[in-house]
């Protein structure tokens, strides 16, 4: 292979406007193919370009692979074995939780499904996943998660266990050249947005805020341009593909060339069916979340408020 077609981690970081550590994280999570030459990580430039294009179109190879994995352990769209645990949600906290479960329960196969909160709850209702995360804001009650769990899982009692609080806000170019601070600033004709996909908690927050402020999405330039992760939105803003996007503060710390404008603190919860709490595997999951070791590892990532981690927020 021509050496010009292969990049090191720093070169990829510069191309994507992210930190070097974030590149390693993308490779570790399988979102960006990489390989070792000696002890050095190398990434093909073609794969970097494909990653960028996949984020633009909302098509995510990793998500497709995960769906295929889930299909393999399902029969007629239900989980086929009590030995399978499918955890749905997009935050790194869930990746770490998965590793803890594997370390504590040797005979359990843990799979991850990287999709948005609204879809998560729908899949939980249909027994397609085992448990999921949620950060869905309801504009009428000004609360997180409870109202959506009640509506999307009718007749099913669930427990909401807090994982963290995160700050949602606007990703803007360095220096915030368009002075974007409020929802009304999104209708500026000189401002173009990079949106999240339907079903994500961030997209629902935006749409609910637009409704509450009587703002029509048709007046927002770029509203239909979607990306399928906080990172891809932030990177798009850093590359100048849009002027503003929404996401969590943690990701803003990993992407170069952008500022973060805080808008609203959100509650990030784990949703488990109440009847499942009687099973040993779910008891172990709760014990992990409540453990000092798990809390310390999450706390070391920065960007999370763990004041209620492990706390039962509500029963539905």
From TrEMBL:
Q: What range(s) does the Helix-turn-helix domain occupy?
A: 11-55
- Please name the InterPro entries in this protein's record: DNA-bd_dom_put_sf, HTH_17, PBP_domain, SinI_DNA-bd
Domain named PBP is located at 101-289
Pfam families this protein is in? HTH_17, PBP_like
Q: Which Gene3D superfamilies match?
A: Periplasmic binding protein-like II
Name of this chain's protein: Helix-turn-helix transcriptional regulator
Q: What is the originating organism of this protein?
A: Clostridium hominis
């Amino acid at each position: 292979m021509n050496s010009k077609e292969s990049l090191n981690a720093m070169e990829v970081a510069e191309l994507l406007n992210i930190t070097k550590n974030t590149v390693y994280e993308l490779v570790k999570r399988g979102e960006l193919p990489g390989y070792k030459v000696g002890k050095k990580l190398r990434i093909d430039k073609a794969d970097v370009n494909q990653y960028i294009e996949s984020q633009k179109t909302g098509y995510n190879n990793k998500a497709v692979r995960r769906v295929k994995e889930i299909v393999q352990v399902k029969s007629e769209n239900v989980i086929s074995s009590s030995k399978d645990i499918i955890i749905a949600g997009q935050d790194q906290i869930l990746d770490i939780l998965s590793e803890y479960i594997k370390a504590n329960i040797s005979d359990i196969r843990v799979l991850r499904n990287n999709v948005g909160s609204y879809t998560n709850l729908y899949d939980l209702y249909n027994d397609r996943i085992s448990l999921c995360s949620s950060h869905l804001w309801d504009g009428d009650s000004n609360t997180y998660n409870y109202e959506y769990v009640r509506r999307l899982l009718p007749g099913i009692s669930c427990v909401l266990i807090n994982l963290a609080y995160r700050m949602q806000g606007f990703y803007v170019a360095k220096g915030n050249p368009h002075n974007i601070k409020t929802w009304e600033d999104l209708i500026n004709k000189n401002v173009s947005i990079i949106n999240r996909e339907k079903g994500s908690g961030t997209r629902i927050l935006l749409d609910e805020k637009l409704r509450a402020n009587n703002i029509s999405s048709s007046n927002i330039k770029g509203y239909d341009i979607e990306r399928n992760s906080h990172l891809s939105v932030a990177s798009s803003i850093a590359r100048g593909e849009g002027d503003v996007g929404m996401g969590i503060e943690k990701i803003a710390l990993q992407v170069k060339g952008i500022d973060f404008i805080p808008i609203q603190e959100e509650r990030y919860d784990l949703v488990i069916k109440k009847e499942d709490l009687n099973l040993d595997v779910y008891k172990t999951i709760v014990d992990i979340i409540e453990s000092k070791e798990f809390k310390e590892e999450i706390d070391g990532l920065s960007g999370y408020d763990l004041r209620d981690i492990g706390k039962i927020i509500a029963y539905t």
